[in-house]
Amino acid sequence: MSAADPFADLPGSVEIVEVGPRDGLQNEPGTVDLDTRLGLIERLIAAGLRRIEIGAFVSPARVPQMAGSGELARRLGRREGVRFSALVPNLKGLEAALAAGVEEIAVFGAASETFSQRNIACSIAESLERFRPVVTTARARGLRVRGYVSCIAGCPYEGEVPVARVAEVAGALFAMGCEEISLGDTIGTGTPRRIAEIVRACAASVPVTRLALHLHDTYGQGLANVLAGLLSGVRVFDASIAGLGGCPYAPGASGNLATEDLLYMLRGMGIATGVDLDALLAAGRFVTDALGRPPASRVARARGG
Ligand code: HMG
Ligand code: MG
């Protein structure tokens, strides 16, 4: 008897959400000038990416790297078929996002109390109350709204995070009107069985087609976890050009899964994304040249940088 094809039910296409201009650059030791941020985003669009997180409307005292996100959004304007998104932690951030013409925002909560306090200076329960009017107002103004849950597998301060807590926060964000819930393995400690368990638990209150995985590659588990997500029904994956990234409030959170590596795997498996690998590699070279270091993506290294 021949073995069954474990990939028989995989989809023909998935969506990549490029988070490099936000998650990637927010963690740089120095700030990157607006022209470079803009140049990177233009190259990501040229590579075929259709969902790009361009910045964050957060306190510039806390994350100076994201200052100027309003001007960046205004200079980019709107592009046919492309969705630009930005992080928004509160109503002040939403006002700035609306003024800049951003069409999608993302509120960002966590499944760990200590991380929530360190990252956004409030408890999980307070964050949900803070997000509610943001989500309602944004939806009423015609914006799309995404909700992040950080620390789905582990927290830099508390260690392992219970799966039930992740599902609770994901369900609460979805119930208040977030259309997509991005599950963040902030410090990359998750392994495939755990990621599948988390997706299954969240799918009890959020349709699996509305879940995204946001994987940091700190422990080299990124692609294996994408596969676990694919086999669990997830169809949206966040990734960062050249493997840039981390979180200033998560010590040890190294780069996100590199977009080039994600694309290479998906392409090899016959799963379409609309993204061109050579153009993506060129975008990666552009930003790593500007930062003065080689790309962290395996594909870029294999192709000579
Ligand atoms: P707070 O201290 O509670 O806020 O911070 P506040 O309301 O008391 O205000 C304090 C100061 O911040 C005031 O300024 C406000 O005007 C200003 P001051 O009077 O002192 O000059 N402020 C703002 N300025 C600009 N935009 C705003 C804004 N709000 C207040 N929206 C707050 C609360 C959330 C604002 C703060 O803690 C903050 O900005 N944190 C940033 C957190 C952040 O960006 N973290 C990184 C992104 S999350 C991440 O990377 C994880 C993710 O990738 C998923 C994963 O990997 O798991 C998404
Ligand atoms: Mg992240």
Helix content: 40-55%
| Low-pLDDT residue intervals, each spanning 5 or more residues | none
Can you tell me the number of structural domains? 1
Q: How many β-strand stretches? A: 10
State the distance separating the first and last CA atoms: 45 Å
Number of helices: 12
Known CATH architecture: Alpha-Beta Barrel
Overall description:
The protein has twelve helices and ten strands. By secondary structure, the chain is α/β, with parallel strands linked by helices. It has a single domain (15-302), classed as TIM Barrel (Alpha-Beta Barrel), CATH 3.20.20. The strands form two sheets. Strands 1-10-9-8-5-4-3-2 form an eight-stranded parallel beta sheet. A two-stranded antiparallel ribbon has the order 6-7. The chain is globular. The chain starts with 14 loop residues before the first strand and ends with a helix. The relative contact order is 0.15. The model has no long low-confidence stretch (mean pLDDT 96). The structure holds 3-hydroxy-3-methylglutaryl-coenzyme A and magnesium ion. The site of 3-hydroxy-3-methylglutaryl-coenzyme A has 26 residues, from helix 1, helix 4, helix 5 and strand 5.
List the helices and strands and how they pair.
Layout: E1 15-18, H1 20-26, H2 34-46, E2 51-56, H3 69-76, E3 83-87, H4 91-99, E4 104-110, H5 113-120, H6 124-140, E5 144-150, E6 154-155, E7 159-160, H7 163-175, E8 180-185, H8 192-202, E9 211-215, H9 222-231, E10 236-239, H10 259-268, H11 277-291, H12 298-302
Helix pairs in contact: 2-3, 2-11, 7-8, 8-9, 10-11
The structure holds 3-hydroxy-3-methylglutaryl-coenzyme A and magnesium ion.
